[in-house]
Design a protein that fits this description.
The complex is a heterodimer of chains A (247) and B (304).
Chain A (H helix, E strand, L loop, with lengths): L11 E6 L8 H10 L9 E2 L7 E2 L3 E8 L6 E8 L7 H4 L6 E3 L6 E3 L9 H5 L6 E2 L6 E2 L5 H4 L12 H5 L5 E5 L6 H8 L16 E3 L14 H7 L5 H11 L2
Parallel strand pairs in A: 1-11
Antiparallel strand pairs in A: 1-10, 2-3, 4-5, 6-7, 8-9
Chain B lengths: L4 H21 L8 H22 L20 H25 L5 H23 L11 H24 L6 H24 L9 H5 L7 E5 L7 H6 L8 H23 L3 H24 L5 H4 L5
The chains are: A alpha+beta (247), B mainly alpha (304).
Amino acid sequence: MTSLPEPSAIKLGLVIDLDICVGCQACVVNCKEWNTSGYGAPLSDSDAYGAQPSGAWLNRVHTFEAGTGADAKVVHFPKSCLHCEDAPCVTVCPTGASFKRSEDGIVLVNEDWCIGCGLCAWSCPYGAREMDPAEGVMKKCTLCVDRIYNENLPSEDQVPACVRTCPTNARHYGDLGDPNSEVSLLVAARSGFDLMPEQNTKPVNKYLPPRPRRAANDTPMSLLAMADEATPSGFWKWVDSTLEKLG
Amino acid sequence: MRPAWSIIFFTSISGLGFGLAAWVVLGFIDLVHPQQIFGVGGLVMLLIGAGLLSSTLHLGHPERAWRALSQWRSSWLSREGVLAVLAMLALAGWGWHVFAIGTPPLWANIAAALLMAVTVYATSMIYASLKTVARWHHPLTPICYLMFAAAGGLLAILWLQAFLGQGQSDAFELAVLLALASAWGVKLVWWQIAGANGSGSTLASATGLVGLGEVRSIMPPHTSENYLQHEMGFVIARKHASRLRLVALGLGGGLPCLLVIMDGGSAMGIGLALLLHMAGVFVERWLFFAEAKHTVSIYYGHQH
């Protein structure tokens, strides 16, 4: 049924820290690696070694620049499914293939029912869904549902692949429905925000803003300025005055 | 948005079919002989059926299309499918009644015509319900679809009257002209106002990078076009948009009206008018997709 379930108490999702993401693409690659052999059909590519390589990926890292001149800031911006509470991709699905789990809020696609009409991708404001070029079914982030509940994995691996692999710890996973969870506390402390709140999708995933740049008078004095201002003393004062005398 | 030929064909041809069906069940064409009942009925079913069949061509798994009839509670696409099946069943029943018993009672004819209209409305709502495409998400979008279905249907009735040698009244010709003019009139207004203010989303709201100055995309996440850009980042039409609008208006509105006025009601002339009208509607429907911008293009640095 593609009507949305009552909002679940548990809302599993990601918190992405835009302050420390370095845009290394490790999360993108590990996502593809895990999910091409995990839930559903493999994530296929087309023309992978040709001039126009393309394919289905569930996580993409954009790079933006904000501001101008010395104050410009480069921000690497990972984007994947936000597991919205009011997910338009679920309600538009004509077959019931696209659904939101009532127990933890994860949005998934039942690939055996998907007819590949693409309407869910049209309804998603974020571009979180991509059609698989070989299988003809819609692909999306599963929040690694086949890792997080997988008791055959060591406990440190029972998190989404992107979170497990991030070398800078810019990605956090947890229950955003619990106000006292680590991720919720992080969101509260760092003023985490929703993407495109005006689209009223109520995303579960949150983003943490880049920390403010230090003010100009906090920055270290330049070396040239140091050299100009320094007045020598002792031995260096004698060297200085002797050299002056030599003309 | 990428204009898929199967979808353009589906919305235009099934729209014409449902429009024609509505006027047929309301009694605008006399169906006396069995040949007329089966001929006109067959034409209506062919138009609707060809459109629906075409809509399954863009699917990744057409063999599972029957599943699309299940989620009518939430999905306009599913509602469209269910209503289209009901409409075809109703038309078959109507045709049988005319053939075996005689013209059905007025209430049944009105109900059947309303079912055709609601089906076209559902088709339009597949697009109009999408908040992500500002141009489509407008109250006039369903009106445009309904007006084109009604006007195309009336023109087809006029052609059938000529083709079957039934008398045509000047009043009916005038009604056809008025329907064509108002359909294109609403479309002209839609072109001006639908989505004119954008989706309300900006790169700042899409990234949450507010208070840092203007946000620019400096590096896309991939080196060549992906599904999102292929499907939702279609930009080819935009530079020719105003010229194509004129082509659509001329083919779909101007020339058919001239032919109806000047030809004097020959089957050949009205038939040509109908073909030109449909060519214009194809161009209009192509633009409907090609001109529409999706919020995801914001992430790729396009103004919205």
